[in-house]
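Budget justification, computational time. The allocation requested in the original proposal was used primarily to generate structure tokens for proteins on the priority list. As evidence of use, we reproduce two of the resulting records. The first is shown immediately below.
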Amino acid sequence: MIDFQETIEFKKDFKKLFKKYKTLKKDFDDLKNKYLNLFPQGNGTKHWNSLHKNESFEIYKVRMHCDSTKGKFFRVIYAYHKKTNTIELIEFIEIYFKGNKANEDKGRIKKYINTF
């Protein structure tokens, strides 16, 4: 079973984007339920990129479809923590629309890594 959590920064990003992209909540729920629950470390497609790995967790960037963007994608940055064989944690770090921002916030990811 995977437990999903969000950083404070992620919550702020999401709230701001949701005002403009009304299907974002549904699309994000689809990402969690249809993909991350089954493939927390990616499914081997070009939609997933590994950004960092250590003994405690791995950080991934995944491309997320959003109906409101008419074929364009959001990017979601998350940390996958494998705690035990039965309980896992995914903590969302950042979400952004590729049309508004070229790349992830490397400073935010570095700050997240340094908290462990």
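The second record produced under the same allocation is shown here.
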Amino acid sequence: MISSFRNGAPRTASVSLLTALAIVCSAFSATGGVVAAGRNAEGQSAVPADLANASVTAVSAGNRHSVALLANGSVRAWGDVRDNRVNPPANLNAVAIDAGAYHTLAVTSNGRVAGWGFNGSGILSIPANLTDGSSRAIAVAAGDYHSLALKADGTVIGWGSNNGGRAQAPFGLAGVISIAAGGSHSLAVRSDGSVTAWGVNDYGQTNVPEGLTGVIAVSAGLSHSAALKSDGTVVIWGRGSEGQSAVSGISGAVSISAGNYHTIAVTASGTVVSVGDNSAGQHISSGSGFSAASAGGLHSLAINGSGPVITAQPQTQTVLPGSNLALSVSASSADTYQWYFNGQAIDSGIDAILNLSGVSHANAGSYSVLVSGAGGATFSQDALVIVRSLQRIAAPAVLANGALRVTFGDALGAPLTYGAESRFTVQASYDLESWFDTGIALIWDNGSIQAEDAIDAQMPAKFYRVIEQ
């Protein structure tokens, strides 16, 4: 979108830019029982007996406590009993969890954020808009003394300790699909497969390797960072003195998790690869049938199920409104399929291929499929459907104070959600060739976005463009 004016008299030229909706990406998981290895002084590796064969969809290992999410939305925790960190709120109906060093966060089915455990530095002081329903969360990340949430509009909000800038996402960060919080740093994956890092950098944990692309998930350890690429390769940077940055033995990965001093990955064949510190026996180094794993302080958790093995995951697609697309999955020993859209079952999605016709903004989101067989069930990784549409600018208006107001929004009439303004940047040019950032503040206004700038009477023309990240 470009707006221009000449000699102080506004005129308009509309050049629409493609814009993407923010989507969530979650880790590959399966329904199965929980296994643990490593330190057990506080009972963090003593898996409750009824979880050994339960329908667990996610696990997360904290410093000295463990958390599991069951298929029915309930959450179980065990280990260190201090600060109520093993006492999740009743009736959570959670869809995502993440355990930090001393606290745990969860996302509920209605997009709200809950937390429990130690509240030092305000790590459980969850912003009101994430608890009252005015903003919808789709993922959370719990660090040592800071917390993050990924909102449905693709922006990230943090709270707790901001020492070293760990909780405050970089200005303009948008289009995020995955987040992670480590000891004192944070990571985010954007929809273009790039990684952004911020916070303490004493071991280079925020020095994202140059040229890193194709990333679908990240994990932040105490002082190191790990990224999983769409081709199953893993990239690790930061502290590596205990071998936690070794990647030579990791290939075909479907999930990655960074702990204090060790890193573990689950491969497409259902094995777990562990690297780094093993002083407490925290490596899960034998067995098969694993679908997800989590590295904690000095212990590890994994889900071991006997469901079908997914050999070809559904893939992210970017389309224009009105397009037709097909999402597909391939799996061995599969009998039935159930597709999900943003965590909700699709009534007609009961085949290996999910066909979507004439897609609109309403179809943009996260798709996954539960593949079932005689031995159990396995969830696929999420596939992102990104629907790009034209943005259109309205006729600029000259205000009484001499400023120029430009209002823009979706050309098809879909309202932009509150907070969407953080996904856009404004650039200006005097010749339509050289562009520079203006730093103009953008204001959300009832589904559209406004920008105001002073008219430059000394220049014959000034052009603006607003780009969604």
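A brief technical remark on that second record: The first strand starts at residue 2 and ends at 6.
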